[in-house]
Design goal:
Blueprint (H helix, E strand, L loop, with lengths): L2 E9 L4 H11 L3 E10 L2 E9 L7 H15 L1 E7 H7 L3
Antiparallel strand pairs: 1-3, 1-4, 2-3
Helix pairs in contact: 1-2
């Protein structure tokens, strides 16, 4: 299984989770774990997803998620799990 980390950050608005999850479902990306919180009106979500079989499309999905975020006024980032782990290793 190949996993990726998706983060979503920005002002809270209606439908953020629905829009991100709908996009992921359309790309057959399975959500393995999800955590979200709202602090003083700011939305923060982290997802672990299964991107098995999406190697050739990873960059396209990453780019399209960023566009979805721009449309909603939030920042969406997707990174491969191994890169995310390397960047956040203490």
């Amino acid at each position: 299984m190949k996993r990726a980390i998706i983060t979503v950050v920005g002002k809270d608005t209606v439908g953020i989770i629905a829009r991100v999850c709908t996009y992921l479902a359309s790309e057959k990306v399975n959500i393995l774990d999800i955590s979200q919180t709202i602090v003083s009106g700011y939305f923060n979500m982290m997802m672990i997803v299964d991107v098995t079989g999406r190697d050739a499309e990873f960059g396209r999905i990453e780019e399209e998620l960023s566009k979805v975020g721009n449309e909603m006024g939030v920042v969406i980032k997707m990174q491969r799990e191994d890169i995310f782990d390397s960047m956040h290793r203490i």
